[in-house]
Specification:
114 residues; mainly alpha
Length: 114
């Protein structure tokens, strides 16, 4: 099924965080050690949540691909898989937005003088 291939490609791009080939959005920025408290602790917690979210999305995509591989066109299963893919695409878009917001927060976080 072509949709399965598309979601697999999306997953590869999403999970290739360290790769310069990742076209789906920026990787999570590291938090500089000179970011002041309590901002630093908040950012550390937020980053950990985003890492967990990325792992959960990866599991959801793998599950989708297993269920929706080689689904006959026009079948009821194809409709279910198309709905599942739309939800995953929305979740990935929301994740990308969360990454961008996080990276912006890291960039603007107050820092201690060196």
């Amino acid at each position: 099924m072509r949709r399965s291939l598309l979601i697999q490609i999306t997953l590869i791009a999403l999970l290739a965080v360290g790769s310069s080939a990742w076209a789906q959005g920026p990787p999570l920025r590291d938090i500089p050690t000179n970011v002041v408290e309590p901002t630093r602790s908040q950012l550390v917690k937020q980053r950990a949540g985003l890492v967990e979210q990325r792992a959960a999305l990866g599991a959801q995509v793998r599950d989708h691909n297993e269920r929706c591989e080689d689904v006959p066109e026009g079948s009821a299963t194809e409709t279910v898989c198309a709905t599942s893919q739309r939800r995953l695409n929305a979740a990935i878009a929301a994740y990308r937005a969360a990454i961008e917001a996080f990276n912006s927060a890291v960039a603007s976080a107050p820092r201690a003088n060196p």
